[in-house]
Amino acid sequence: MFQKELTRENYLKKIKSIKFKETIQYIYLCSSVLKEKFRRKGLATEGVIKLINKVTHNLREKPTLFYDSYSKEGEALAKYVATKMKLNLLPRNP
Fold this sequence. Notes:
Blueprint: H1 8-17, E1 26-29, H2 43-56, E2 64-67, H3 72-85, E3 88-91
Parallel strand pairs: 1-2, 2-3
C-alpha cells in the first residue's frame, strides 16, 4: 500500500486532526534539522510552538518539556519555547 505524498498541506491537516483527551505530563522535544538556507528564520521555533499549542491548548496543567542538547542552537530553542509557553524545562540527560 502506498501512502499519500507527504506535503506540507497533508502534514498540517494531519496535525490539525489530532485530538488528545487525556492529560499529557511530558513532551519530548527532539531535534530539528533544516537546510542551511532555511536556518535562522524561526521556522523550527514556529513549528514547535504551533504543535505544542495544538497538543496542550485544552489541558488544565501544562506539561514538562524535555530536550536533548545536541547543539547550542537546539538548547536555545528549547529554552525560548519553554519560556514563551511557560513550561517547565528539563534536559533529558543532565
